[in-house]
Amino acid sequence: MVLFSGDFDKVMACFIIASGALAMGKEVSLFVTFWGLDAIKKPSFKTAGRKVLERMILWMRPKGPLKLGTSKMNFGGIGPRLFRYMMGKKNVEPLPSLIEMSQALGIKIIACQMSMDVMGIRKEELIDGIRIGGVATYLSAADRSRVNLFI
Amino acid sequence: MVLFSGDFDKVMACFIIASGALAMGKEVSLFVTFWGLDAIKKPSFKTAGRKVLERMILWMRPKGPLKLGTSKMNFGGIGPRLFRYMMGKKNVEPLPSLIEMSQALGIKIIACQMSMDVMGIRKEELIDGIRIGGVATYLSAADRSRVNLFI
Amino acid sequence: MVLFSGDFDKVMACFIIASGALAMGKEVSLFVTFWGLDAIKKPSFKTAGRKVLERMILWMRPKGPLKLGTSKMNFGGIGPRLFRYMMGKKNVEPLPSLIEMSQALGIKIIACQMSMDVMGIRKEELIDGIRIGGVATYLSAADRSRVNLFI
Asked: What whole-number distance in Å separates Cα of residue B93 and Cα of residue A117?
């Protein structure tokens, strides 16, 4: 799977599918690129020592799964809180637990080198246990997979 | 196929691909989740007897294929009307007929249980002839498919 | 692959994956539909001799890869310029070269007949070396492919 989007709702869908597949005993590789990287950032990191443009973009982008906006009905951040509340009521696993669970079940997360370069994101700023790779890494995993999705 | 989006243009693309594949004699399973559910709602349903939040969200979301907005150039609902008019001029099947045609040709539509729970949508409010299922239902269909798309 | 989106960032992702796969010796078919057509337009073309509605839509849509907006942080067109600048700094191939390179490596680009009809786009207004086809053309290519993506 490719996770391109950083919208809360799409990232949820991505990890629900991933954790479901893992629970059924499948192997899952997730190539995270562009806005998707927002979802696997650590909640806080320093922007010191970077170029102005990089710092600006890092400052504007959400940091980690609890800060993502929704693709619709975001309402300046109230939307995601609302959905988190309603999902909690229905016993849907929250996003950070879904990510952790997927990692415990053996998901392979590959962060896109090029996107990290362009946006000035460093490996230590992403959650632990992920690899860095390029499009060739993705393509060789995709070629071995039965199901490929671009989210 | 997964239909995640509820944008008029993406739902059109989804059912054009689906009906094309069905016409070529293929089997098509469509797993409808999140905003995609807007496309398979009946035009009207009552929101009485629900929690305030559920009622609020149901009231704000479009009801059925004729109420969907476009992902670009929506212009407060004029965009979809414009596109419907231009598509009609070029003899493109309108969305409700495409959905009906796909059903007549044997499409399997599975509505996502979890999304329905979270948004407070009930089975009788969706069009007839669809099933309810979870991510495991989707994954077993995806695993048997030659072509998988996330729209 | 289906290229549905005309967002600069998604079109970039699409052609990075495509050119990567081509470089690895794979065959790539790209079916370009709806907003994706904006990415393969020639930079300028005349709208004379068309219906008013078609002219209006053509006038509002971006013309070619250098005019695309980003799906997030567009800021009225500053976003894409910013990203192009940052990508240039990191030696990422610009989008028009990626498209040319993919064509040199043998990508098959098929523009969606129906979308062209609806939006009033003519073959001579798209870049050279592409074919026109319908959903059946796409489906037969998809059926032969190992990896299918909807971008």
From this structure: 45
Which residue blocks in chain C are alpha helix, DSSP H?
A: 8-23, 52-60, 78-89, 95-104, 113-119, 135-144
Measured distance CA(C37)–CA(C3) in Å, rounded: 8
What sections of chain A are H helices per DSSP? 8-23, 52-60, 78-89, 95-104, 113-119, 135-144
| B132 within 8 A of B20, measured Cβ to Cβ | no
The rounded radius of gyration (Å) of the Cα atoms in chain C is 15
Contact C102, C29 (CB under 8 A): no
Distance CA B16, CA B10 (A): 10
Residue whose pair of structure tokens reads 């149901």 in the numeric block:
B58
- Token pair in block for residue C96: 């028009």
ipTM: 0.85
Which of A74, A75, A146, A151 has the highest number of chain B CBs within 10 A, making it the mutation to test binding with B? A146
Contact B47, B59 (CB under 8 A): yes
Q: Please list, in sequence order, all residues whose beta carbon lies within 8 angstroms of the beta carbon of residue B68, skipping any fewer than 6 positions away.
A: B6, B7, B8, B11, B38, B39, B62, B80, B95
Please write the tens of the pLDDT for every residue from A38-72: 999 988 766 666 777 777 777 778 888 888 888 87
pTM of the model: 0.89
- Please answer yes or no on whether A24 and B139 come within 8 Å at the CB atom: yes
Contact B73 C60 (CB under 8 A): yes
**b/e map B22-38, b = 16+ CB within 10 Å:** beeebebbbbbbbbbbb
Q: What whole-number distance in Å separates Cα of residue A88 and Cα of residue A77?
A: 17
- Residues C63 and C43 sit within 8 Å (Cβ to Cβ): yes
Residue B87: Cβ within 10 Å count: 18
Spatial CA neighbour of A61 closest among C94, B28, C72: C72
- Cα separation, C116 vs C113, whole angstroms: 5
Residue contact A20–B142, C-beta within 8 A: no
* pLDDT tens figures, C96-127: 999 999 999 999 999 999 999 988 899 999 99
The edge-to-edge listing of strands for the beta sheet with C29-32 is C2-3, C29-32, C108-112, C131-133
